[in-house]
Design brief:
Blueprint: H1 3-6, E1 10-11, E2 15-18, E3 24-31, H2 35-43, H3 45-48, E4 58-64, E5 71-77, E6 83-94, E7 98-105, E8 114-123, E9 126-134, H4 138-146, H5 149-167
Antiparallel strand pairs: 1-2, 2-3, 3-9, 4-5, 5-6, 6-7, 7-8, 8-9
Length: 168
């Protein structure tokens, strides 16, 4: 999405992405599943490998040490045959309502990590997912947006919704 268009919120009737400041992205989605199940689906490798990333990606490695100071790392193979790695460190973990973690795409030079704050709120058996991503600079935020992350993020969230439906 071009940076000029990114200034407005965009939705697909399920996932919403907005830009609350020049260094942030906010993603929201409501899942038809209880909060504890959503938390487990995003923190257990047995589930993460089934939804993380766009369709056509294959999870090659998933490591999660879910505690403050613990780390996580996912390695995927894309449809193009290339491998892509993502990693970070957990700063705060409050089961099942909040995770604060760093996020790195290992395909870019070090120093461009972002800080993600995920909150899960349950209402009537449904879970509201809100992630605020804080970047070190507007250039880092806009670079990620221009990379096409929005379509991949939407597809990933759809895959998570499908997994949750199968687990409920």
């Amino acid at each position: 999405m071009p940076a000029a268009k990114a200034a407005n919120a965009s939705t697909d009737n399920r996932t919403t992405m907005s830009l609350p400041s020049d260094r942030e992205i906010m993603i929201t989605r409501t899942f038809n599943a209880p909060r504890a199940l959503v938390f487990d689906a995003i923190t257990k490798c047995e589930h993460v490998g089934r939804w993380y990333g766009p369709r056509g990606t294959e999870m090659l490695s998933c490591k999660i040490d879910l505690r403050p100071g613990g780390s996580w790392r996912f390695v995927q193979r894309g449809p193009d045959g290339n491998e892509y790695a993502f990693s970070g460190e957990y700063r705060e973990v409050v089961r099942p309502e909040r995770i604060v973690q760093t996020w790195n795409f290992e395909g870019i030079p070090p120093g461009h990590e972002s800080l993600e704050t995920l909150t899960l709120e349950e209402h009537d058996g449904k879970t509201q997912w809100t992630t605020r991503v804080l970047f070190k600079s507007v250039e880092d935020r806009d670079g990620l947006i221009q990379s096409g992350m929005e379509s991949g993020m939407r597809e990933t969230m759809d895959r998570l919704a499908e997994l949750l439906e199968s687990l409920v």
